[in-house]
Amino acid sequence: MTDLPGIVITGASGRMGQILVQTVTASDACRLVGALERPGHDWVGQDIGTAMGGAALGVTVSDDAVATFAKAQAVIDFTAPAATVQFAGLAAQARAVHVIGTTGLTPEDIAAIDRAAHHAVIVRAGNMSLGVNLLTVLAQKVAAALDADYDIEIVEAHHRHKVDAPSGTALMLGEAAAAGRGVDLADVRDSGRDGITGARKRGDIGFHAIRGGDTVGDHDVIFAADGEQITLRHRATDRSVFARGALKAALWGQDRAPGHYDMLNVLGL
C-alpha cells in the first residue's frame, strides 16, 4: 500500500477540502498523507478524520507546508491565490505534482506558477469536471464555426460565498470561445454591464455572474443571432465531480515531465 502515491490536501477544513479528503481516502489508487491548514486554525494538531466529525484517519492537520509537502507525491489545492502561488513554489521544491483548482488568479500569479512549472508538474484548471472540459472544447468549436453575427454571452451562477467573478470556469469558457474566433479574450471581454452602456459591440464576449443560495455551479454559453440562439449548458449538482477530476489529475501527473498542464491534457482532449 505504501507504494501508492501520497496526496496532501490544502485548505482541508473548507468545503472542497473535506470533499477531497473523503475522495482520496475512498480511493484504492492513492493514500492521504497530509492535510494542511493556515497557522492558528482550530483544526491544526487534530486528526483530520475526527476534525471532520468521523473516525480517525491517522493524518494530523498541519500548518507546516514544507514538512507536509515533503511526504507527498501530489498536492491538491483549492485555496486562495496568494496561498496557491506560495504552494506552487514549495510543491516544486518537493517535486510533487501540484493540482490547482484555485480561481481568481491574476496574470502575475499565473506567471509565478509558470516559473514553478519549470521544475515540477502543475495541472491547473478553472474547473476540474469532465463535463465542463468537454463544454470548453464544444464552445471553441462552435465559436470557430459561427461568425460575429452570433453574439457570445456567458452566464454563470454560484453560491453566495464565492468571492471572485466571473468564475474561473466562465473565463475558461470565454478563453475557449475567443480562441475559436481567433482573438484575444482581453480585447473582446465585456463584463458587468450597468446603466446606459450603449449598443452591444460586435464580436464582444459578455459575462454575467449570479450569486445566491448554495448553487454549486451553472454555466451557459449562449450564441445569439437574429432569429436563433444556441445554448451550451453545464450544471454541477455535487462538488464531488471537481474532487474526482482533481484526483484524476494528481494521478495522471505522476512521472510526467515538468510543465504547466490543464485538464484537457489530463483527459486527452
List the helices and strands and how they pair.
Blueprint: E1 6-9, H1 15-26, E2 31-36, H2 48-51, E3 61-62, H3 65-69, E4 74-77, H4 81-93, E5 97-100, H5 107-116, E6 121-124, H6 130-145, E7 151-158, H7 168-181, H8 185-188, E8 189-191, E9 205-211, E10 217-225, E11 228-236, H9 240-252, E12 259-261, H10 263-267
Helix pairs in contact: 1-9, 4-5, 6-7
Describe the structure.
- This protein is an alpha/beta fold and 269 residues long.
- It has two domains: 6-124 and 239-267, NAD(P)-binding Rossmann-like Domain (Rossmann fold, 3-Layer(aba) Sandwich); 130-236, 2-Layer Sandwich (Dihydrodipicolinate Reductase, domain 2).
- The chain has ten helices and twelve strands.
- Helix 1 (15-26) packs across helix 9, helix 4 (81-93) packs parallel to helix 5 and helix 6 runs parallel beside helix 7 (168-181).
